[in-house]
């Protein structure tokens, strides 16, 4: 079956624990804008991320706080930074890359925190039931246009799941996509 799903392009970003956040900042996080995933938001606060070969400034902190620290980057970012993080599902940070975060207050190094997030399709349990899919199920994304392609992606079911596929900038650029484009979800 084919279903239309909107694209959300995910730039490099950071999820932090409350403890780690306050090691980097002296103020509460301030919301810049809400994300489509209910209850999640982009903060105004940013840091520089640093690897063995380079750094990237103004990498946005995301809220709310999590129970683990996670820095999500693209393969292109990894080349720039001199890192080789694994491609993983969000939250699977064991044996991932070490990365340094720099704010005006502090510099901290996070071990096992940096990943390249796998492609995924967010949805809530009702949508998953309607589509007859389960969490972590492998599905296909069909992109039509000048740079047509078919990509693998994983289903990501959560109570706050807004029906949307998340790709990083590398995947989106390879397929000629922009935010809110509609593509085919093939189950």
Give structural notes:
It is a single chain. The protein is mostly beta strands and 187 residues long. It has 2 domains: 2-7 and 119-186, Beta Barrel (Barwin-like endoglucanases), CATH 2.40.40; 11-117, no CATH class. Helix content is 14%, strand content 46%. It is built from 4 helices and 14 strands. The protein has helices at 18-24, 75-81, 125-131, 169-174, and strands at 2-10, 13-15, 31-34, 41-50, 55-63, 70-72, 87-88, 97-102, 107-117, 120-123, 138-143, 149-157, 164-168, 182-186. Strands 1-13-10-12-11-14 form a 6-stranded mixed beta barrel. A 6-stranded mixed barrel has the order 2-5-4-8-9-6. Strand 4 and strand 5 (55-63) form a beta hairpin. It is globular and about 50 Å long. The protein starts with a strand and ends with a strand. The model has no long low-confidence stretch (mean pLDDT 97).
* Counted beta strands: 14
List the helices and strands in order.
EEHEEEEHEEEEHEEEHE
Q: N-to-C terminal Cα separation, in Å? A: 5 Å
Shape: globular
- Give the structural class: mainly beta
Q: Indicate the proportion of strand residues.
A: over 45%
In percent, how helical is the residue content? 10-25%
Overall pLDDT score? 97
Radius of gyration: 17 Å
Number of helices: 4
Main-sheet strand order equals 1-13-10-12-11-14
Give the number of domains: 2
Give a short account of the largest sheet: 6 strands, mixed, barrel
Low-confidence stretches: none
């Amino acid at each position: 079956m084919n279903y239309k799903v909107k694209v959300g392009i995910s730039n490099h970003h950071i999820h932090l624990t409350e403890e780690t956040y306050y090691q980097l900042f002296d103020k509460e996080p301030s919301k810049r804008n809400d994300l489509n995933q209910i209850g999640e938001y982009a903060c105004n606060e940013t840091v520089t991320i640093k690897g063995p070969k380079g750094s990237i400034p103004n990498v946005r902190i995301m809220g709310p706080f999590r129970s683990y620290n996670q820095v999500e980057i693209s393969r292109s970012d990894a080349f720039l930074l001199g890192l080789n993080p694994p491609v993983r599902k969000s939250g699977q940070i064991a044996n991932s890359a070490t990365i340094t975060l720099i704010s005006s207050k502090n510099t901290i190094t996070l071990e096992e925190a940096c990943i390249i997030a796998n492609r995924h399709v967010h949805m809530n349990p009702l949508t998953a039931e309607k589509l007859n899919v389960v969490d972590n199920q492998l599905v296909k994304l069909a992109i039509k246009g000048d740079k047509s392609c078919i990509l693998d992606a994983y289903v990501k079911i959560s109570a706050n799941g807004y029906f949307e596929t998340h790709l990083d900038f590398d995947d989106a650029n390879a397929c000629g996509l922009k935010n809110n484009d509609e593509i085919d979800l093939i189950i």
